[in-house]
Amino acid sequence: MTTSARKVIINDTTLRDGEQSAGVAFSIDEKIEIARRLDAIGVPELEVGIPAMGAEERETIAALASQSLNADMMIWCRLRRDDLDAAHGLPVALIDLSIPVSDQQISKKLNRDRAWVLQQIATIVPQACDMGFRVSIGGEDSSRSDPDFLKSVLEVAERAGAERFRFADTVGIMDPFTVYDRIADLRASSDLAIEMHAHDDIGLATANSLAAIRGGATHVNTTVLGLGERAGNAPLEEIVVGLSKVMGIDTGINLRNYQALTQLVEEASGCRISPLKSLVGERVFSHESGIHVDGLLKDPVNYQGVDPADFGRHHNFVLGKHSGTTGLIHAYAQLGIMLERDAAQRILPDVRRLVEKTKRSPTADELTSFHHAHMLAGV
């Protein structure tokens, strides 16, 4: 099957791993509104909480499930009977049962061995299936696991009734080339759906997620704005656009109203995004360089890799130190002043001096003042 013909399911974990960002705590109303907006743009799966956290968390999960959303909902549990008991009866379709699969964590975190992990999978997964859940096994620290042992994990999980395996780069240490090799190796040895869960500790979460999909992953975890533990997870917006632009895969997610969702998550999380954050930052469709502005005004495709209209936005031309006469003429035209090129060449040094001094673009009044001064001088 060609890449473009493949279906990739996004499982957004803003409400679970996103909320695990240090200092982030969503209210129930905020969670419901975030879930509604994710559902409205077409996200097919939402990971919504951790039942073992207590009664209040379970009530929130039940409230989310009562919203009659189109998205399937998933809950996250450790691969333990007490966690499974906490999840029992919740009206959600999917459950991720997470267990360490690297020798480091099996030994140093659980004080167990590989045989115990396989036995837990064989014991708990059928119990979850009997409760009516569709089961994903979450392979914590998959990136540091032994490849052959991981194949055994998938084999036992599939035999026990699981339908999906989550490959977690828990500490965010992988590169796209290794991810591709690992996922392709698993894909060749198992019929389970494979989900990539990437962390951004060294800035490779998006690249690693796309590499996993190229290697055969069927699902990918995301969060709005890349929220998540430490440096966060793969950002939803980057994965959607990356799949479309780089791999020709349509996820069915429409980002035209995404800005309202990002503003909601930004406010609810208290995590302010950089104005240069890819795709959603305030300045990412702003242009100052004279060469770029001239090219964009002639044809936006000259300097447009992503159409801002896909996000309900537009190009914004900013006057600054690197502006040229074309940009200045355009700025004055927006004010209703038709500026000749020779006049623009004379006014441009004034604009550059102002920007260098004030560290901002000139206001409409300042531009009008520059024009008036040059007119009085006879320019």
Describe it for me?
The protein is an alpha/beta fold and 379 residues long. The protein folds into two domains: 267 residues, TIM Barrel, CATH 3.20.20; 91 residues, no CATH class. 44% of the residues lie in helices and 13% in strands. It contains 14 helices and ten strands. An eight-stranded parallel barrel has the order 1-2-3-4-5-6-7-8, surrounded by seven helices. Helix 6 links the parallel strand 5 and strand 6. The longest helix is centred in the last third of the chain and has 18 residues. The chain is elongated. The termini are far apart. The model has no long low-confidence stretch (mean pLDDT 95).
Give the overall silhouette. Answer: elongated
What helical percentage do the residues reach? 40-55%
Radius of gyration (Å): 25 Å
CATH superfamily of the largest domain: Aldolase class I
Overall residue-averaged pLDDT value: 95
Uncertain runs:
none
SS summary, helix count: 14
User: Helix- and strand-based class?
Assistant: alpha/beta
Q: What CATH first level of the largest domain would be assigned? A: Alpha Beta
**N/C terminus separation:** 66 Å
Domains counted in the coordinates: how many? 2
Count all strands and give the number.
10
CATH architecture of the largest domain: Alpha-Beta Barrel
Secondary-structure topology with pairs:
Layout: E1 9-12, H1 28-40, E2 45-49, H2 55-65, E3 72-78, H3 81-87, E4 94-100, H4 103-108, H5 114-130, E5 134-140, H6 147-160, E6 164-169, H7 176-189, E7 193-198, H8 205-215, E8 219-222, H9 236-247, H10 258-269, E9 286-287, H11 290-298, E10 316-317, H12 325-334, H13 341-358, H14 364-376
Helix pairs in contact: 1-10, 5-6, 6-7, 7-8, 8-9, 12-13, 13-14
